[in-house]
Amino acid sequence: MPRLLPIVTAQVAPRPAATALDGFASEVTELLAAHPETRLVIHPEMHLCGVDGTTEERHELLQAAAEPLDGPRTRQLAELAGDLGVWLFPGTVCERGSDGALFNTALAFSPEGRLVASYRKIFPWRPYEPYDPGDRFVVFDIPEAGRIGFAICYDSWFPEVARQLAWLGAEVIVNQVETTTADREQELVLAQAHAIVNQLHVVSVNAAAPVGTGRSLIVDPEGRVTAEAPDAEPVVLTEVLDLDQVTRTRTLGTAGLNRMWEQFTDADAPIELPLYAGRIDPRRWRPASAPRA
């Protein structure tokens, strides 16, 4: 069976945090009505925690919007995913940790109405974001499709994130973004670069105007852009991700040539990485394999 994953990415402006869930169910329902074969719906970073004002005012509003993962917002989103029978990535949210810390957290809900994965942004955009950094990489499996890895916005500027997710077996990296600044141009290059050097799909969905700069895009494992928003206006991008393409690219090579996951043999000496106080061990270089249906 081919491993196909039909997705919808919604390049839209954030919803006000105080009333974020009002009408969100209708928003997702309308997307599915227009694209009934969709298995996965993706919204941008902070889609349900939109705030405005000075930096100090924004930080106060984000603190007020924070909820623990077992709070009412999560329960409502899980019910929505279950009612619609779809995988739902509703955009990242402000999470209140058990010790009071504030996290920028991506959520994945299953068609059965369960929260199956959550990822805390490891690289908050300092000094502008008030979040505490997460401490672990997150991948999870969508049955009969493949393994998904989470990254959030500024994470994409650190190639270690994409490499680690690929090593954990990710075949798709979903990068939820709320870029409001002039560096979206560079982020587009980074999305393609991560796809190429890790031989996987990258989905980078940004917020729309008037908050975000848009230009969401979807990149295949050879680095080709298969869908792209031309500007910051609200738009819906659709694509059917072929996760078998990851296997083909890694087996046959990018452009039929480069197979970097096969670079090392067990006989090669380890390469020291002083920056990380670690090393590349050739015996551990190859990525994990996602379970097959």
From TrEMBL:
<keyword id="KW-0378">Hydrolase</keyword>
<protein>
    <submittedName>
        <fullName>Carbon-nitrogen hydrolase family protein</fullName>
    </submittedName>
</protein>
<dbReference type="GO" id="GO:0016787">
    <property type="term" value="F:hydrolase activity"/>
</dbReference>
<feature type="domain" description="CN hydrolase">
    <location>
        <begin position="5"/>
        <end position="243"/>
    </location>
</feature>
<dbReference type="InterPro" id="IPR003010">
    <property type="entry name" value="C-N_Hydrolase"/>
</dbReference>
<dbReference type="InterPro" id="IPR050345">
    <property type="entry name" value="Aliph_Amidase/BUP"/>
</dbReference>
<dbReference type="InterPro" id="IPR036526">
    <property type="entry name" value="C-N_Hydrolase_sf"/>
</dbReference>
<dbReference type="Pfam" id="PF00795">
    <property type="entry name" value="CN_hydrolase"/>
</dbReference>
